[in-house]
Amino acid sequence: MSLSIVILAAGKGTRMKSAMAKVMHPLASRPLLQHVIDTAKTLLPQQLSVVAGNGADQVLPFLEGNQVDAVIQEQQLGTGHAVMQAISAIEKTEQVLVLYGDVPLTRSETLQQLIDVTSKQGLGILTTKLDDPTGYGRIVRNDADDVICITEQKDADEATKAIKEVNSGIMLLPSQWLISSLDKLGNNNAQGEYYLTDMVALAVGDGLHIATVCCEDNAEVAGVNTRQQLAELERHYQLQQANTLMTNGVTLADPARLDVRGTVTTGTDITIDVNVILEGNVSIASNVEIGANCIIKDAEIGEGSVILANSMIDSSVVGEGVNIGPFARLRPGTVLADKAKIGNFVETKNANIGLGSKVNHLSYIGDTDMGSDVNIGAGTITCNYDGANKHRTTIGDRVFVGSDSQLVAPVTLEDGATIGAGSTIRKDAPSEALTLTKNSQKTVAGWQRPVKKK
Ligand code: UD1
Ligand code: CA
Asked: Total domain count for the chain?
């Protein structure tokens, strides 16, 4: 069975009160439309098109980046009119699935179920039951419980308004029948729009079988019309992510205080304290501890490593048994070998830190290759930038750098070198020797401290 998917995304989103197109608002840091496109792609459709209109200046470049076909709906004359714009894509396949760009959390399993229950020449509707169905189209059934039509809120009488089963908007239709019937759609209704939902009564009239899948989780079919609804869906999504992590063996101090904005793979017996954000692609091996308020993005964390509170890790690789933080910042290109230690107020960037090496306090280590068992004293700075170019610092094994030293790159500290505290190292420091640049100490006897002027 060949399938095309049409995602409707031309609507205005007035209630968002935003200069940003509604479908571009992020949920878990991805645009709403990205969620729908990603789910659509899991169904492997032959054709995937998005109907854009309002905010097309933002939506079209986004679609280009996603290699998805765009169809423009110049005037928003209703959901039926929107589908008409995509006929050239629809006619290439046997069935068409209509999705909404502002309904981000539908699972692909649910859509597959809709495809499975809908006969080839029939029509399938994804529905849900709501305690308060206000605003939605109602699924109207006859005594035999067969669907006979969908009636929009604004066109419904009191009895119809009492129906709790509502239209999600997500619908599967036979392409040829749809194309030949679209011109029968009128706009003689309360909103003066061409309703896609009117296709249901037309299908019943033509003797098509109508199948429904009723979603138990309302969030799967919930649309975003306001920022409040966006926040509700974000929370729902985040709780799902937290649940998945816990199911896979991760302890969360509070599942309501974790944000996953990407893909996380985990081992077991990991503990994560409150207010942690995991972004991009993160993999965390077993027995890792992550303290409160850490932000970890595009990183690999090795087995048994401990990341203390308020640390940031970006595009870095952390080995096994490593200690980080509190208040450490690992910038892109940091690679920590096993048992390394990066302490408080230490910033690293493009740096390879060898096995068991320690940078414990108040340092900047950038563009550096460091061997094993090195000890970098507090306040050590690699001066990697000459104002025009970046240069590397090379540090061998077993090097000891005294506190408050500057290493002016390009420079090499050979294996076993010792640097005296407070040195400014501009030339290579030889192996197994003490190198220092400190001024000699002097004492001024009887020196008077300045006193405050009256
Ligand atoms: C629609 C359904 C309603 C359903 C509800 C679920 C119709 C007539 N009604 O109502 O039965 O319960 O969704 O949320 O279909 N769009 C376009 N072009 C248009 C109009 C809409 O692309 O000309 C897009 C919007 O961007 C949106 C979707 O279609 O993604 C739904 O449009 P909206 O105006 O929100 O429809 P509702 O009135 O909520
Ligand atoms: Ca809507």
From this structure: 2
